[in-house]
Specification:
single chain; FAD/NAD(P)-binding domain; 7-stranded mixed β-sheet; 19 strands; globular
Length: about 375
């Protein structure tokens, strides 16, 4: 069976690896970018995603390239920690913890392990034609085309595959804009990280060691969508924004090269009622985009990759269209509730941080300090079970 994966990001490449290990051999990954480079900022790979990587035999590579965290906290702008997660307990309970890693390094690891698949760059999808009972036709902006027995749309929140299958999907703006970056330095406590919430609505800041010499950081602010700052304006704007924080964040931002600061508004969309049509299916952000407040966006795409490959392998004969539909239905029913939970909960956390004014600031801090650890543990049981 000829399989086409649209999108060479974390979800698409992990899917290629998972399919390879399930015995599928004719896999092509189509990536829109001219080349897959080690770019981007950082991310946290939580226990559920590390479990999948362990099953795929690449967890040790990911751990070696990143930084295994011992704890993470939520605190106020003074640096006072109001809520804390002990990752060592999570490791004891689930066998794996959280790895902070440069996104580009993770992508390179996935590229190396997806070497049995064909990976084509500069292939931006323009259109897709699904004809029942025959191969799906793919048309790219460079004028080329291809055919596939099965198509997997892993092309992100602005998915062309999703648009061609189901039309426009209204995106929801979270009310927050976000800056991210990577800095060459080492923190005093590299195994610990904390997200601090400021007095201004939506203002959060976090630094996290992602390797021996690299620190990942992000800053969010409640703001109307579409804020535009020039490269020279961005750093002064951020340093003024975070001036109240008792944290290494000021030094980290100051040391970051201007051209390495990324800026994006944060969007998601309401859970979809369907992810597939014919022999074409969506995964990752294309199917269930989420804001980053739970650190589960990439993790859920990684889970998708494992479960989709498993569902397809479990079918007696994936070359039959009805059997593929059954596999897709099994996958959707397996994943829809958890991904919807991630999207909803992450959005709620962002809205909580958006509370403004003195009353909102005190309410946020009080809620953080009184939330029982048992509630967090129950949430982890749901998130980290694969």
């Amino acid at each position: 069976m000829k399989i086409a994966i649209i999108g060479g990001g974390i979800g698409g490449l992990t899917t290629a690896i998972a399919l390879q290990q399930k015995g599928f051999t004719d896999i092509t990954v189509y990536e829109a970018a001219p080349e897959i480079k080690a770019v981007g900022a950082g991310l946290w790979i939580a226990a559920n995603a590390i479990i999948v990587f362990d099953r795929l035999g690449i967890a040790d590579q990911v751990k070696a390239a990143g930084n295994i965290l011992q704890s993470a906290g939520l605190g106020n702008h003074k640096g006072e920690i109001l809520s804390k997660i002990d990752f060592t307990k999570i490791i004891q309970r689930y066998g794996n913890g959280t790895v902070a890693i440069h996104r580009g390094k993770l992508q390179q690891i996935l590229m190396k392990n997806a070497d049995k698949s064909t990976i084509l760059t500069h292939k931006r999808l323009k259109n897709i034609k699904i004809t029942e009972g025959s191969k799906t036709e793919l048309y790219f902006e460079d004028g080329t085309s291809a055919e596939a027995d099965l198509v997997i749309g892993a092309d992100g929140i602005h998915s062309v595959v999703r648009k061609r299958l189901f039309g426009e999907t209204p995106l929801r703006y979270s009310g927050q804009t976000c800056w991210r970056g990577i800095t060459q330095m080492s923190l005093e406590n590299p195994k610990n990280s904390a997200e601090l919430w400021g007095t201004q609505a939506g203002l959060r800041a976090c630094v996290s060691q992602v390797s021996d010499t690299e620190v990942y950081w992000y800053i969010t602010q409640k703001h109307k969508a579409g804020l535009k700052l020039s490269e020279t304006e961005t750093k002064p704007y951020l340093l003024n924004l975070i001036s109240e924080f008792n944290s290494p964040i000021q030094k980290v931002v100051q040391l970051t090269d201007n051209q390495h600061i990324l800026h994006n508004d944060l969007f998601d969309f309401a859970p979809l009622k369907e992810w597939y049509k014919g022999n074409t299916i969506l995964i990752g952000d294309a199917a269930h985009a989420t804001t980053p407040n739970l650190g589960q966006g990439a993790c859920q795409a990684i889970e998708d990759a494992w479960h989709l490959a498993d569902c397809l392998k479990s079918t007696p004969s994936p070359t039959e269209s009805m059997t593929v539909s059954e596999a897709f239905a099994r996958f959707y029913n397996l994943r829809k509730e958890k991904t919807a939970f991630v999207t909803k909960t992450s959005l709620q956390i962002g809205q909580l941080s958006n509370l403004g004014g003195a009353i909102g600031y005190r309410l946020r801090n009080w809620l953080l300090s009184v939330t029982p650890s048992s509630m967090a543990e129950k949430q982890f049981d749901y998130l980290f079970h694969v």
